[in-house]
C-alpha cells in the first residue's frame, strides 16, 4: 500500500483484503464456514451474537444470502453497512448529548 493513502482508503482496502483472504480457494464468494471463520477473527462481537449454526443462518438470512449460496462481497458489504450505520447512530447520539450539555452550561 502506498504510504500516502488516507485512513479511509486503508479501511476500504482492509475490508476487501480481509474478504479475499477468508476464501481458501480465492473464490469470489465465501462458504458459510469461511464467512463464520472471518467473523470470528475480524468481528468477534458479531460472531458471539451469531453464536451457533442457527444464529449464523439467521444472520445470513438477514443479509439476504439464500441457503446453500456463497456469501458475496456485496452481501458482506450489507453487513458492514449495517454495522457502520449503527456506529454512526451511536456516535451521533453521543455528539447530541455533548452538545446539549454544552448548551446547558
Automatic annotation (TrEMBL):
This is S100/CaBP-9k-type calcium binding subdomain domain-containing protein. SUPFAM superfamilies: EF-hand (SSF47473). It comes from Phoxinus phoxinus. Residues 8-48 form the S100/CaBP-9k-type calcium binding subdomain domain. Pfam families: S_100. InterPro entries: EF-hand-dom_pair, S100_Ca-bd_sub. SMART domains: S_100.
